[in-house]
Amino acid sequence: MIKAPFTIVSHKEIALGVFELVLSGNTSGILRPGQFVNLSLDGFFLRRPFAVADRTEETFTILYKVVGRGTRALGQMKPGHRLDVLTGLGNGFDAGRACGKKVLLAAGGMGLAPLFHLGKELTASGVEVCSVMGFNTAADVCYDKEFGKFGEVRIATMDGSTGIKGFVTDAMKGLDFDLFYACGPLPMERALCLGTEKPGQVSLEARMGCGTGICMGCTLITRNGARRVCADGPVFDKEDLIW
After folding, report:
1. Is 169 helix (H, G, I), strand (E, B) or coil?
2. Is the entire prediction scored with pTM above 0.85?
């Protein structure tokens, strides 16, 4: 974990209420896709956790949807604004498991963020990737063209306004894969894990107090006992989760 100041270099709305935020600073603590950062926002006691969607030697990118006071405040910030950030939090995806396999990336809503970071790493190493992305409506769809650079992309929307009407699990029917990586709402992840016999890893979303494993507020029971989503996760093997 590294605590450092970062400066906003780009901040734009890419879908309805969905923003892409690029910050510049010391990114050396961000080592694996699936790790997250904690942003300190003026006027808020607790930091806000965000998955890293992309990383360079000088910048990292997060994607977020405005859903409450914290994200509304973040959405008003302009390039040049400085933020205090904790980087390199949590344990990320094990990309080494994908070697020689056909991989499915299953993203629900803003769960696409860490999977985009992972997809870039997998395709750079020659792994065959297909993606399924789930949204509520066509107005929420984003990063579908970016995921398209990895391979086949299927879109599912709840109202059927674009792509396949239904859930991620509906859109993935008939896809050939050996291993999956998933991130999104818990009901989506539960349906995916219980609906396929294929192995995989899941990045869980949970309310976090500290984000560093101290407060124990995001603890869940796994087949290996009590685990903290922020420190022992957020990525867990499918086989370890109890649904």
Report:
1. helix
2. yes
For residue 140, give both structure tokens.
Answer: 């929420």
**5-22 pLDDT, tens per residue?**
999 999 999 999 999 999
**Residue 208: pLDDT over 80:** no
Alpha-helical regions (H) of 4-79? 69-75
Q: Which residue has the tokens 């009590």?
A: 226
Backbone φ, ψ for residue 64 (5° rounding):
-150, 155
User: Is 210 within 8 Å of 219 (Cβ atoms)?
Assistant: no
The pLDDT tens digits for 210-226 are: 888 888 888 999 999 99
CA-to-CA dists, residue 124 to 51, 75, 149, 161, 230, angstroms = 20, 32, 11, 33, 28
d(C-alpha 96, C-alpha 142), whole Å? 27
CA distance 89 to 136: 29
The structure tokens 């390039």 sit at 79
Instruction: Measure the CA–CA gap between 146 and 184, rounded to whole angstroms.
Output: 18
CA geometry: angle at 130 spanning 239 and 176, to 5°?
A: 70
Contact 172, 97 (CB under 8 A): no
The dihedral sign for the CA sequence 31, 140, 148, 158: positive
Handedness of CA 161, 148, 171, 204 (dihedral sign): negative
Please count the helices (runs of H) and the strands (runs of E) in the chain.
5, 16
Of 60, 32, 20, 24, which is closest to residue 146 (Cα–Cα)? Answer: 20
Query: Whats the size of the chain, residue-wise?
Result: 243
Q: In the block, which residue shows the tokens 């994200």? A: 71
Reading the block at residue 104, the tokens are 């499915």
